[in-house]
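seq as requested:
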Amino acid sequence: MVGTYIAAGLICAASILVGRAIFAAIGREGWSFLEPAVGLAAVLTVAGFLARFPGHADTATAGVVVLLLVSLAALRLPYSHRGAAIGVPVALLIVAAASIPFAISDRYGLIGVGFNNDLGLHLAWTE
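struct tokens:
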């Protein structure tokens, strides 16, 4: 359970880092709430593209590590993070709300599988 939160935190940190580097590279000096989304898109694009090369997961991992190192180097550019602090309470609230179903069922995975795992019945209900 803790490992899931650690992995999610690392993905969020990488997304913020890469997004900040991209926005700094195009000349934006102030914080934008688009940075994490742009960073996640860049990380997924690099990993998805390199996963098709020989070495598959190893190549994709190496590419993401290189992307993170280049992003760290780009942090030397001017930057103002004054607006970023307002997003921290919102992010914590979202994590708490999203964790409620998993805390109640005391496990991670698909929600409701132990209750009624008949996919055909669920699809019939959606029609």
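The two ends are 35 Å apart (CA to CA).
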